[in-house]
Amino acid sequence: MTKAKTVFIDGEAGTTGLQIADRLAGLPGVTVKSIDPKLRKDAAARAAMMRDVDAVVLCLPDDAAKEAVALAASLGDAAPKIVDASTAHRVAKDWVYGFAELDAKQTDAIRKASHVANPGCYPTGAIALLRPLIDAGIVPKDFPITVNAVSGYSGGGKSMIESYEVSKTAPAFELYALGLEHKHVPELMAYTGLTRRPIFVPSVGNFKQGMLVSIPLHLDMLPGKPSLKDLEAAIAKHFAGSERVHVVANAAAMSRLEPEALNDTDKLELYVFGNDAKRHALLVARLDNLGKGAAGAAVQNLRLMLGLA
Hints:
Helix 1 crosses helix 9 (291-305), helix 4 crosses helix 9 (291-305) and helix 5 packs parallel to helix 7 (185-192). 44% of the residues are buried. This protein is α/β, with parallel strands linked by helices. The protein has helices spanning 15-25, 43-51, 62-73, 106-112, 121-135, 157-165, 185-192, 228-238, 291-305, and strands at 5-10, 30-33, 55-58, 81-84, 96-97, 115-117, 146-152, 173-175, 199-205, 211-218, 245-247, 268-275, 280-287.
């Protein structure tokens, strides 16, 4: 009988940690090990746990994630494989980006990796929309891009969840990061291939989970003056055969799209809306910010790293 792979979730009490634990609980061949809550900040206890497992998932703030990586490195050959769900290592050297559908080589790169950085939820949608078009030469790398996105409040962490669910002090909708310095921008640029910094405008609505990421384009400003079908075909070709990423055909016939339809799934839907006559396009990604945007991606990466997929 094959021995079960063991996983320690460092930060298991948070939203993403709980979601990962739920997904792993139903996964054959995996055992989740937990540390005594009283020892969750005890370096020696955490090091002992890391030494005893095959993989660690970090669901921690950035600085704490960096400290955890250093702690694991101190174990030398006994160090476990690591999936980091924070933003700390997404563009770091020697870390593999955990978007398995990024290109034809990424899945294998994750399988072979010891350190994988889980993608951000917003970048997952934006990268999925832009990378195929940039790779195909339809969108130039220096093209001016604006990314607008709305997420459920569960992506905002403990304080935001409390403001919506407990104190009821949060607004129905709000824009944020209006200084245009959001920490996801370097990640977005690194894995789309963009050389011109995009404008990224995130927002949050009064719903728990679900996400829409949208990118408007003037078709006449693109080389070759592509049609909506050209954009759709390039994106569909890039993700052909994918189990999780799906391009919705003939989206231009639709007139509305809501963000919660993929909740509690690990799916990512991509749409090309627009008006060929007016030469306008709107690229949209829909996903669960806790699914393919967080916990679902982490479990997908774990399965690959542990030889379970």
